[in-house]
């Protein structure tokens, strides 16, 4: 009797059933471990991407488990493999931008052209880096606007790190009537720069340049190097305000 029971569990159908049960248990365990790992890295990945990664990974693991079960049952899976390969290729094409962003994130992490808290300029955007994850980098502009930049853009565009350069060079444009003495205008602008020297980089000299002259007006810029990039817009506004107040008093 015992021999018959042993033969029952060692017969080919019984071995297949035990193998299938083992594959199902392993698949379930691997899915649990995978979802746990993805959840742990949720702090560096957007929540929407976390859900997508969990779903894609879970179904991929289950499909591999199904392959092993079909192979155990001696079922021809070549056609199924071909269809799934095409589906995987289509998914890679659909997620190519995200994959590019993730690859760029690794580049940024390796070479560290900037860190969170530093001021950078990318394309027409300028601000302080407040967050960086696998997909995107967020900067906060001086106008308190959050700009989201895909990490792949950081590889295609020039990134200027204003914090590490030690200072930020700014140009403050002003326009005056052509009839006004330019020497006096220059003295006024330099005098205003002297009043805000606490915000300027030490041992730097403010400069005034004429950019355009027309029969009606002359356009100039005051060149300054400020120590704190966060105060760029504030300083530009303050200088222009003081200058035009002095100009109105002269008139």
What is the gist of this entry?
This protein is of the alpha+beta class. It is 54% helix and 21% strand. It has three domains: 2-94; 108-161, SH3 type barrels (Roll); 168-250, Alpha-Beta Plaits (2-Layer Sandwich), CATH 3.30.70.
What does this structure look like?
With 251 residues, this protein is of the alpha+beta class. The chain folds into 3 domains: 2-94; 108-161, SH3 type barrels; 168-250, Alpha-Beta Plaits. It has 8 helices and 8 strands; from the N terminus they run H-H-H-H-H-E-E-E-E-H-E-E-H-E-E-H. A 5-stranded antiparallel sheet has the order 4-3-2-1-5. Helix 7 (182-195) packs across helix 8. The radius of gyration is 33 Å and the shape is rod-shaped. The protein starts with a helix and ends with a helix. The model is unreliable at 1-10 (pLDDT under 50).
List keywords for this structure.
251 residues, alpha+beta, SH3 type barrels, five-stranded antiparallel sheet, three-stranded antiparallel sheet, 54% helix, disordered N terminus
């Amino acid at each position: 009797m015992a021999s018959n029971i042993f033969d029952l569990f060692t017969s080919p159908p019984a071995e297949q059933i035990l193998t299938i049960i083992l594959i199902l248990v392993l698949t379930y365990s691997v899915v649990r471990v995978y979802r746990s790992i993805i959840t742990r890295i949720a702090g560096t990945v957007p929540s929407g991407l976390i859900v997508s990664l969990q779903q894609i990974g879970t179904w991929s693991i289950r499909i591999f488990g199904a392959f092993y079960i079909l192979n155990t049952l001696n079922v021809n899976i070549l056609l199924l493999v071909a269809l799934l390969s095409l589906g995987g290729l289509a998914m890679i094409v659909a997620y190519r931008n995200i994959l590019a962003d993730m690859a760029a994130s690794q580049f940024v992490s390796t070479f560290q052209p900037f860190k969170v808290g530093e001021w950078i300029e990318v394309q027409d955007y300028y601000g302080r880096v407040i967050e960086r994850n696998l997909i995107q980098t967020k900067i906060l502009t001086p106008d308190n606007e959050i700009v989201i930049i895909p990490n792949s853009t950081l590889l295609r565009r020039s990134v200027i790190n204003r914090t590490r350069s030690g200072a930020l060079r700014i140009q403050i444009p002003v326009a005056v009537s052509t009839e006004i003495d330019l020497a006096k205008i220059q003295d006024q602008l330099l005098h205003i720069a002297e009043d805000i020297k606490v915000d300027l980089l030490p041992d730097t000299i403010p400069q005034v340049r004429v950019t355009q002259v027309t029969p009606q007006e002359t356009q100039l810029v005051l060149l300054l190097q400020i120590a704190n990039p966060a105060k760029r817009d504030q300083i530009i506004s303050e200088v222009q305000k003081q200058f035009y107040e002095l100009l109105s008093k002269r008139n």
